[in-house]
């Protein structure tokens, strides 16, 4: 199933349908400020496990990331020092993943690693969904983004053709990008860029 959404003025019923899918443990594919991504309700362990199986990710070895609606919700799920808060405030919303030490509000599947990636994409569609859901959204890249033709990870209709059977809904937010986020490790107290992607990090 594919659903067209826009940057603003979306039908509230469409948005509620997406929130219901997530609350029921469903998976969605959606646009971000970098690439299309696959995600689920970030506090529903079985849905997260489903994504890990699709992606062939071992949550004990791979960092898992969540999308938060705003900075205040980040501090519920990750430990944020004053300096890291300033750094995130300067750079978010934006194409960054900040790796932080997680809190015990996250499901056990995250606590295996004790760390969590935090995203706050500069994309109104997914931020509006996160706001309405009132919970984090677990997020990861599409399964075959490295191997596929670029159209199959940027064109929502082709994404639906290839991955639609794996998820409950594909959101068509227009043609997506092909750059990964810049990953910033903040777990040691000093920010360290461990993957340069889209976006230039501004220091606090």
CATH homologous superfamily heading: DHBP synthase
What is the count of β-strands?
A: 10
- Count of helices? 8
Main β sheet profile: 10 strands, mixed
Briefly note the structural class of the backbone.
alpha/beta
What fraction of residues sit in β-strands?
15-25%
* Largest sheet strand order: 1-8-2-3-7-4-6-5-9-10
Shape field: globular
Give unreliable regions as ranges: none
Shape-level CATH architecture = Alpha-Beta Complex
Q: What does the secondary structure layout of this molecule look like, with pairings?
A:
Layout lengths: L1 E3 L7 H12 L4 E3 L6 E5 L3 H11 L9 E3 L3 H7 L4 H10 L2 E8 L6 H4 L3 E6 L3 H10 L3 E5 L9 H4 L1 H8 L5 E4 L9 E4 L6 E4 L9
Parallel strand pairs: 1-8, 2-8, 4-6, 5-9
Antiparallel strand pairs: 2-3, 3-7, 4-7, 5-6, 9-10
Summarize the structure.
With 204 residues, the chain is α/β, with parallel strands linked by helices. Helices cover 32% and strands 22% of the residues. The protein has helices at 12-23, 45-55, 71-77, 82-91, 108-111, 124-133, 151-154, 156-163; strands at residues 2-4, 28-30, 37-41, 65-67, 94-101, 115-120, 137-141, 169-172, 182-185, 192-195.
Description:
By secondary structure, this protein is of the alpha/beta class. It has one domain (2-195): DHBP synthase (Alpha-Beta Complex), CATH 3.90.870. The chain is 32% helix and 22% strand. The protein has helices at 12-23, 45-55, 71-77, 82-91, 108-111, 124-133, 151-154, 156-163, and strands spanning 2-4, 28-30, 37-41, 65-67, 94-101, 115-120, 137-141, 169-172, 182-185, 192-195. A ten-stranded mixed beta sheet has the order 1-8-2-3-7-4-6-5-9-10, sandwiched between helices. A hairpin with a 6-residue loop joins strand 9 and strand 10 (192-195). Helix 1 crosses helix 6. The radius of gyration is 16 Å and the shape is globular. The model has no long low-confidence stretch (mean pLDDT 93).
């Amino acid at each position: 199933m594919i659903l067209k959404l826009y940057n603003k003025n979306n039908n509230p019923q469409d948005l509620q349908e997406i929130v219901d899918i997530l609350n029921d443990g469903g998976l969605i594919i959606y646009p971000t400020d970098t690439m299309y991504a696959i995600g689920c309700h970030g506090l529903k362990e079985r849905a997260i496990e489903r994504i890990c199986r699709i992606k062939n990710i071992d949550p004990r070895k791979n960092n898992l990331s969540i999308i938060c609606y705003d900075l205040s919700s980040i501090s519920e799920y990750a430990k944020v020092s004053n300096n890291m808060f300033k750094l995130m405030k300067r750079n978010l919303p934006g194409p960054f993943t900040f790796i932080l030490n997680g809190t015990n509000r996250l499901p056990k599947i995250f606590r295996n690693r004790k760390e969590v990636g935090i995203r706050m994409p500069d994309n109104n569609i997914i931020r509006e969904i996160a706001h309405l859901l009132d919970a984090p959204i677990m997020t990861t890249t599409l399964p075959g983004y490295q191997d596929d033709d670029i159209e199959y990870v940027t064109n929502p209709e082709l994404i639906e053709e290839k991955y639609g059977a794996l998820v409950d809904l594909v959101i068509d937010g227009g043609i997506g990008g092909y750059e990964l986020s810049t990953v910033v490790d903040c777990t040691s107290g000093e920010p360290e860029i461990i993957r340069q992607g889209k976006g230039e990090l501004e220091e606090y």
